[in-house]
Amino acid sequence: MVIRSVVVSGGVSQRSGMTGPICCLQSPLDARSGRSARNAGFGVIFATAIVSIVASTAATAGLPDFQYLRASYRPSEALWLDRHGVPLHSARLDRSVRRLAWTPLPAISPALQAAVIASEDQRFLQHQGVDWQAAAGALADQLQGTQRGASTLSMQLAGLLDNDLKAGADGRNVVQKIGQISAARELERSWSKPQILEAYLNLAPFRGELQGVAAASAGLFGKLPHGLSQGESLLLAALLRGPNASAELLARRACELAELMHARVGCAYLQGLAQQTLAQRQSLPDANLAPAVPALLPLAAGQQRRTTLDATLQQRVLQALQRQIVSLRQRNVNDAAAVVLDNASGEILAYVGNTGDEASAAQVDGAAARRQAGSTLKPLLYALALQQRLLTPASLLDDSPVNLDTPSGLYVPQNYDKQFRGTVSVRTALAGSLNVPAVRTLLLTGTTPFFKLLQQVGFALPRDGDYYGFALALGAPDVSLLQLSNAYRVLANGGRYSATRLQPGKPQWQATAIEAPAAWLIADILSDRAARSVTFGLENPLATRFWSAVKTGTSTDMRDNWCIGFSRRYTVGVWVGNFNGEPMWDVSGVSGAAPAWLEIINHLHASLPSPPPAPVNGLVAQQIAYLPPVEVARREWFVRGTQQALWQVSESGANPIRYPGNGSIIALDPDIPPQRQQIWFSAERSGEWWLDGVKLGQGEAWRWSPVAGKHRLQWRAAQGGQRSQVQFEVRPAY
Fold first, then answer.
1. How many CA atoms lie within 13 A of 549 on its CB side?
2. 318 neighbors 356 (Cβ within 8 angstroms)
3. How confident is the model over 266-272, as a mean pLDDT?
4. Do residues 39 and 163 both lie within one domain?
5. Residue 79 falls inside a structural domain
6. Of 266, 265, 227, 261, which Cα lies nearest the Cα of 21?
7. Most trustworthy range by pLDDT among 71-80, 152-161, 384-393, 566-575
8. What domain range includes position 108?
9. Cβ-Cβ contacts under 8 Å for 721 (sequence gap 6 or more)
10. How many domains does the chain contain in total?
């Protein structure tokens, strides 16, 4: 509605009028009554008296101007937007009232505007804040014992803006009425008519806690204000006179208003609509896509913030999880979570903490909850071994039963399928997620260096490496899906770490956590379908039509199932399980989380290519062969300086170190001078001896003068690249 003309009434000029469907409303009720002429004459006398009183009072102070009111208006909701500005999630923070975003007048149904003016202030466009004719009629009726309201929209707005003018339980007293009149005239001098109507519709209470037209239309009809029909508009206008009116009374008032306006809406229809409207409230349908976000990005009531999330992708990820949970319901799987990260920026593109109505506990954020990592930590362990030059992708590891001494007893790791494959390469061991080779790799790297690496890639672990012991290799620590996904993003970014972000901005890169050649080699192994087929077969949900690197994991007793993987552009992490900790029934990484992961990453690359990354500096390719041929000859990649063409298998295939045994405790003899005490390291064949990272020498045996403390002893084959390690402790003489 646009201001077009100046209206003159009673010899006093008005600054504004209003055109449109409501510009020509008259006062039909007064026109049809025989009281119009009488009230008009009485109104002159009444107005003269009141004006003299108002003129004698000080002008109302403290009323804001329109622009300040709009700027200071605060909804009761906080609103989170996606990266494109689309409403993603809203949360009500002010429980005293339900007030949505301010609605401009052009965004409010013309039918509602017309109905409100007809119901509350029929001469709104003609008066200067006070309808003296209506006031005189109300006074005359009151003298005859009949109650009749005469407050204009301007007067009602003044009462909404000034707490001192708000009506009490017994209504407004004389002083408040006079103040209300003064405030209304003051508003009319500085505000336009459209501004007054717009402010009134945004501040007026409609029913219960619903304040303003946006909350009323959403809470009662489940729609935005511009979509209100004439029948709905009549009901809302009728509610202004009695916000807590019954359905019968509301329908009767709406019917009277329809007759006044000559609206083509039947009373029977209004009665049915009133019954239906007051029986059930609705809410806006498009603002509940990310219930976990408020805890990650807190806002105050009235605030809104743009996030890095994509509403369309968020919905797609949620649907993928819901479909997978439905398919796994018979296997006692009830919950799932997923995140999607942009590799370059660290922006969180999708964050689904649970499956909504399908979840066992809709309040739990499964993407932030800490669960046992399982085999998903193995790529980081092997990356450390490659970085330390202890292993190469071609190096041989023994996949056979092993008993490891620990302070709490023997630790006997086993593979997922309870089978052992003998001598295997690092590529096969990692791609096939074999457990025993991973434990043997941890013996090489040591628990402390691996624990430090986990910290460098973003894991905040409450315990040190010694607490987890050998189980650190098999994912004993509890981690979150978001942390785990970002750790894989480190591999996707060539070993560089930066924190994830929920708000737009530039990534804050920290020191390189993993050397680029090692990170590239791990990504190459995780993308190798042939190497993965040893455990999973060639056809499985981990295989994509574009380049991707992926790893699954399952925690103890099948309580948690993971699938984490990345393409050139995105990292996707999926978890399935039960929030209450119940084990799943016969669910692995391939059957649990992987199908949802595949659906999500296929969607992301529906039209986006993902070619294999080019080899980084510091890598060389070498044709290799094994003797005996435990694996087929192939072209392999190496960190420069570690390449080797022929790889020879140990005769026994077991740990060649004969003494000391892993976990041995050696006590020094107090009766023998320290310089005379010796320890002999022995192996089944000649090789290099390394102690605590320092080369001692070469041979089948080596004599060493013991030093108190914990030590790491390594044996490295002169040919074939086999490496073995034991940890032992020398205790001082007491």
1. 27
2. yes
3. 94
4. yes
5. no
6. 261
7. 566-575
8. 8-73+102-279
9. 392, 394, 395, 396, 642, 644, 647
10. 3
Q: Which residues pair with 425 in a beta bridge?
A: 396
- Tokens representing 434 are 């074999």
| pLDDT digit string, tens, across residues 166-208 | 766 666 677 877 888 888 898 889 999 999 999 999 999 998 8
**Predicted confidence (pLDDT) at residue 358 exceeds the cutoff of 80:** no
- CB burial of residue 694 (10 Å; 0-12, 13-18, 19+): exposed
Structure tokens at 419: 């089978």
If you average pLDDT over every residue of the chain, what do you get? Answer: 83
Q: Are 425 and 397 in contact (CB under 8 A)?
A: yes
Q: What is the CATH number of the domain that holds 569?
A: 3.40.710.10
Residue 501 in domain: yes
Q: Are residues 514 and 585 in the same domain?
A: yes
State which amino acid sits at residue 185.
R
Cβ atoms of residues 90 and 305 within 8 Å: no
1 burial level (CB within 10 Å; 0-12, 13-18, 19+):
buried
In a domain, 590, yes or no: yes
Q: Is 466 found in the same domain as 401?
A: yes
Give the residue-averaged pLDDT of 503-517. 90
Whichever domain contains 694, its CATH number is: 2.60.40.10
Rounded Cα distance between 189 and 541, Å, is 71
For 351-375, letters b (16+ CB in 10 Å) and e give: bbbbbeebbeeeebbbbbbebbbbb
542-563 average pLDDT score? 91
| pTM, to two decimals | 0.74
Residue 633 exposed, middle or buried by CB count within 10 Å (0-12, 13-18, 19+):
exposed
- Mean pLDDT in residue range 340-365: 91
pLDDT of res. 410: 45
Q: How far apart are CA 490 and CA 497, in angstroms?
A: 5
| Helix pair 230-239, 212-221: axis angle to 10 deg | 120
Residues 235 and 121 in one domain: yes
**Alpha carbon separation from 671 to 677, 703, 708 (Å, rounded):** 10, 20, 16
Neighbours of 189 (CB within 10 A): 11
Residue (of 396, 343, 387, 380) closest to 618 by Cα position: 387
DSSP secondary-structure letter at 649?
P
519 neighbors 613 (Cβ within 8 angstroms): no
681 in Cβ contact with 660 (< 8 Å): yes
- Shared domain check, 248 and 125: yes
Domain end: 589, 604, 619, which one?
Answer: 604
Q: Give the separation between CA 411 and CA 403, rounded to whole angstroms.
A: 6
Is residue 567 within 8 A of residue 547, CB to CB? The reply is yes
* Last-in-domain residue among 218, 247, 279: 279
DSSP code of residue 347: B
What is the distance between the alpha carbons of residues 574 and 550, in angstroms, rounded to a whole number? 11
Please say whether the dihedral angle defined by the alpha carbons of residues 682, 687, 688 and 693, taken in this order, is positive or negative.
Answer: negative
DSSP strands (E only) in 150-261: 205-207, 210-211
Identity at 620, one-letter amino acid code: V
Token pair, residue 225, equals 């204000």
247-261 helix and 230-239 helix, angle to the nearest 10 degrees: 120
Contact criterion met (CB below 8 Å) for 77 and 63: no
Query: What are 658-672's pLDDT values in tens digits?
Result: 888 776 778 776 666
Instruction: Answer yes or no: is 289 within a domain.
Output: no
Q: Are strands 723-731 and 664-667 parallel, antiparallel or unpaired?
A: parallel
* Together in a domain, 172 and 253: yes
Which amino acid is located at 600 in the chain?
Answer: I
SS3 90: strand
Clarify whether residues 163 and 33 are in a common domain.
Answer: yes
Rounded-to-integer distance, Cα 488 and Cα 479, Å: 13
Given a contact cutoff of 8 angstroms between Cβ atoms, the answer to whether 565 and 550 are in contact is yes
